[in-house]
Amino acid sequence: MPVIRPESVTIVNGTSNFPQENLARNDAFTSAVCLSYAHVGVPMGRLYNPTTRISKQTLMTKHQLSSSIALIGLLFASVTGRAQQTSYDFVIAGARIVDGTGAPWFIGDIGILDDHIAVIGDLHHAAAKKRMDATGLVASPGFIDVQGQSEFNVLVDNRAASKITQGVTTEITGEGTSIAPLNNRLLEDLQDSAKKYGVALDWRSLDEYLRRFERARPAINLGTFVGAGGLREYVIGKDDRPATPAELEQMRQLVAQAMEQGAFGLSSALQYVPDSFASTDEIAELAKVARRYGGVYFTHQRSEADQIFQSLDEVFDIAQRAGISATIWHLKTAYRENWGKMPEVLSRIEAARARGIDVAASVYPYTRGSNGLIACFPSWISEGGTDKMIQRLKDPAQRARAQKEMDEPSATWQNQWRGSGGSQGVTLIQVLNPELHKYEGMNFEEIGRQMSKDPKDAAMDIAIADRGQSQVVISIMQEADVRAAVSSPLVTYGSDSPAQAEDGPLSTTKAHPRAFGTFPRIVAEYVRTEQTMRLEEAVRKMTSLAASRVGIMDRGILRPGMMADIALFDLAAIQDLSTYQDPLRYSVGVKDVFVNGRPVVLDGKITEERPGRALRGPGYKLAQ
What we know:
The protein has 21 helices and 23 strands. By secondary structure, the protein is of the alpha/beta class. It has three domains: 6-84, no CATH class; 143-366 and 478-506 and 518-584 and 608-623, Metal-dependent hydrolases (TIM Barrel); 371-475, no CATH class. The model is unreliable at 1-62 (pLDDT under 50).
């Protein structure tokens, strides 16, 4: 038991220097300290402030200080004795604990009982079913991927292998079009993937999906937003027109239902069809409903390129009108003409916060993005759905019009073909049609040569053959802007990629490296190599900041009583290995990963444990 001596606690000009890190390690120990301070008249509410002022009337005499320390010792001995007598499922011993708050690390032990953290402190005499020597390892909260995209893939392969090997324990998903609610029109969009992977589309509501998710016995936790684009398609389809009052009211009701079934809030992907057809007013009205249930708003904003400042103003406007917390997904300044604008973007976000608007952002640490091939075409191509898109691409006049627009600047759509530098900057990574697999990993300059076609014709023919399901990687950012966003204290992280694997059904296509390496890359590149952040700050941004932006209350910090989602990693060895040329490679250096108290990774190997849970937002609690 640690000995606390009177001379180690000083009061100078009314200020106590009692070591604050001790207060964070054990709730029971904190209670003991509170009782001892109360004994000498110090209000307990002040204990967590390291500069607490104590009035002259409450200054300790030497006798009071000695008796207070003795009381702390007796109470701590009792607490420690009980902790040592408890038998834990796991004791993680001797770790460098980075607790997720941004506070300096400390050496300690973590006791796990059932699905939660039972105690943090000195447990060298405690009984445990398994004691793990974590000397030399960092213990942090499990990483939270705020843009995970694995809601379908975990039904194919429940390991979520490329995520848990990074230390990710929780995903939040649902960008623009969420996995539920579904009607026949939305089900049609999922049919091709479901057929390929043998997934039964046996849910319609969000509640039904979350139950389906848990029956799949996933390795990770997952929560979702309800997507405004999906609701628009549910009610209106992919038509470019305003919602009628009756249609808007139906969408409001769908938001309310999803919130009551566990959505964490509203999302949008305003660059893509059909979200791009929604007005600011429409999104604000739906966000008001999410806010009524305590939800938040996450957005792929309308422009990340030439209209980025107007787009930021729209985000601020929606947040202010709905009174809702807003987070901008994968913050970027895309296309060469916008490189260097990230400091101004961050400055505008900070200025909005100074005006009382609750806005922040997420980012992934790569200079290339990824999305659907059809996003390389003007948005009018996709209006009305897949069949109409294919008809337009087969029509020579409309094809020629679209190809001309792909070479020109535009204020009406985000021209990522031109923004990527043309065909050499757009790489095909995933298709559903097996006849197209031979082109994966090639850019469209190379594919065009293989097909003996103009690269734009090759792109359109692949979109037709794959019914708009193909995915691409696009070269659109510069490292200086990425570094500025990664290092901002307002920015958390999201991979914007579904889980894949080195083997099994999700290893048959290529990927963006961010699916395998986002979180280790943050530590390896920006903490260890470039030193743009302290380790404690990077962990805060990967854990408690992510949790607070989403509204997750029981994860993201290492504290007794919190859920036991924990990552242990070697700071010197953690590294992303996935590259654009060879993407299906797990990261290294993450040694052990716990999800809800069970190890899904031990000594760097994926286990058979599948303890993931569906996470439900604040509206679900209100509805129960």
